[in-house]
């Protein structure tokens, strides 16, 4: 769609938030562009940013865009590559970040603009938690709509598994709620493809008890011994069969070269966690041990330093694998040896995150999340401080990702086709014109969605 002049005055007249247009306020406009996590998308030129503050603001914004046939995308924490689009009106939900905890009912309601840290802060003070991601600056809404896995997934399931209700605004401007008892088919579809059906305005989650202190932190290994240490950690986790234990094996690239670490978390009694930690360190001999008792929300934030906002990133979906093989680990370390100069890829991360446990135990038919059989996710999130090296970084990531793909889980067969027909039917019902398409899109006009998997 070509850029054209749009009169936003009718929207401004009914909005409690504000509209930022480049021609009217270039400084604030550029400031909103620069809030995005990935510098690679900052070259896109939206027509305006609409900062919404209420559900009514969202309704009026959607109706305005539909009436004027305007492109629209949605953002909150601005971590998604769909946060900006050329010539689009960007609905910015970041001010809708309220978090309300009902301790007695063990539920929390989060506005769609809330970040993981906002939710953790309010729930952990009551020794309660819902399973979210592993980076505290992620937005809860976008994360949940994709299924969502993190440190607590082995013990509590995916984030979407713990979502009890979605509130959203559809392309017709209707406010719709989806739960097990209200629009249950939509509720099912929201837990994996929810951005296709409307703008989510709030989410209600189930809460679980968590100790005042968890055992968590990082174990650092010399690169020369990291591959063997990762294999020992994998075996250790498999043999213990304890869903209260989670590990993220990681390779973080600094200007001086990569460093290997294991993020360790145990959410049971401290004495048991300490014994497990001692056993693991005796086996793997880390150079540095930074694991200690601490509140869960502090643990969640403790890895944020590895995620650098504002550099140029490239990432694929990664590979969800049923088994983390020796060969898979060797491919990763061989890929590290083939990486561009460390100054080029400084800020990059390779993740080997433990799954399984409760994620596998929850029935597959409960949501369209397709990776329940996975024991690990292997993801490469490559960043470069210099965008001129983007293609070189992309080539490196694609090569390693392709080699790992032979172990990946890919939804296919009659069950996958049937599931995607259910999702397409929801798309036809709630967004027949595909107004919401700046996402992992389900095209309502297509009968099959193999190309979207």
TrEMBL record:
Transmembrane annotation, as ranges: none
Keywords annotated in UniProt: FAD, Flavoprotein, Oxidoreductase
Gene Ontology MF terms in the entry: FAD binding; oxidoreductase activity
Keyword Flavoprotein: yes
PROSITE patterns: FAD_PCMH
SUPFAM superfamilies: FAD-binding/transporter-associated domain-like (SSF56176)
Cofactor(s) of this protein: FAD
Pfam family, one: BBE
InterPro entries noted in UniProt: BBE, FAD-bd_PCMH, FAD-bd_PCMH-like_sf, FAD-bd_PCMH_sub1, FAD-bd_PCMH_sub2, FAD-linked_Oxidoreductase, Oxid_FAD_bind_N
Top-level taxon in the UniProt lineage: Eukaryota
Domain FAD-binding PCMH-type positions: 42-210
Record family assignment: Belongs to the oxygen-dependent FAD-linked oxidoreductase family.
Protein name: FAD-linked oxidoreductase
């Amino acid at each position: 769609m070509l850029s054209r002049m749009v009169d936003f005055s009718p929207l401004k007249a009914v909005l409690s938030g504000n509209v930022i247009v480049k021609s009217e306020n270039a400084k604030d406009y550029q400031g909103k562009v620069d809030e995005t996590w990935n510098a690679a998308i900052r070259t896109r030129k939206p027509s305006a940013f609409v900062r919404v503050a209420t559900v009514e603001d969202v309704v009026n914004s959607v109706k305005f865009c539909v009436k004027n046939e305007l492109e629209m995308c949605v953002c909150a924490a601005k971590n998604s590559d769909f946060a900006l689009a050329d010539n689009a009106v960007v609905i910015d939900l970041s001010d809708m970040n309220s978090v309300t905890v009902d301790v007695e009912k063990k539920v929390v309601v989060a506005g769609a603009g809330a970040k993981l840290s906002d939710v953790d802060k309010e729930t952990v003070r009551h020794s309660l938690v819902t399973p979210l991601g592993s980076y505290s600056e992620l937005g809860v809404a976008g994360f949940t709509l994709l299924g969502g896995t993190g440190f607590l997934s082995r013990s509590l399931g995916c984030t979407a598994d713990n979502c009890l209700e979605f509130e959203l605004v559809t392309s017709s401007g209707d406010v719709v709620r989806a739960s097990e008892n209200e629009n249950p088919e939509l509720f099912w579809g929201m837990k994996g493809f929810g951005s296709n059906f409307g703008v989510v305005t709030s989410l209600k989650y189930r809460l679980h008890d968590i100790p005042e202190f968890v055992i968590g932190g990082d174990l650092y290994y010399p690169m020369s011994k990291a591959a063997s240490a990762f294999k020992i950690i994998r075996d250790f986790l498999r043999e213990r069969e304890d869903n209260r234990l989670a590990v993220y094996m990681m390779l973080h690239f600094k200007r001086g070269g990569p460093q290997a670490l294991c993020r360790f978390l145990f959410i049971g009694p401290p004495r048991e966690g300490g014994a497990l930690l001692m056993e693991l360190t005796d086996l793997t001999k880390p150079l540095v041990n930074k694991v200690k008792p601490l509140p869960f929300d502090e643990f969640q934030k403790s890895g944020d330093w590895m995620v650098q906002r504002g550099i140029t990133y490239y990432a694929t979906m990664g590979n969800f694998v049923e088994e983390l093989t020796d060969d898979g680990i060797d491919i990763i370390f061989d890929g590290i040896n083939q990486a561009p100069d460390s100054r080029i890829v400084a800020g990059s991360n390779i993740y080997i995150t433990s799954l399984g446990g409760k994620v596998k135990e929850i029935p597959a038919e409960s949501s369209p999340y397709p990776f329940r059989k996975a024991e690990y996710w292997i993801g490469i999130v490559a960043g470069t401080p210099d965008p001129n090296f983007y293609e070189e970084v992309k080539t490196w990531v694609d090569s390693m990702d392709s080699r790992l793909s032979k172990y990946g889980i890919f939804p296919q067969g009659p069950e996958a086709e049937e599931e995607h027909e259910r999702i397409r039917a929801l798309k036809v019902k709630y967004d027949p014109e595909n107004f919401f398409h700046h996402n992992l899109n389900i095209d309502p006009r297509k009968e099959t969605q193999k190309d979207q998997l």
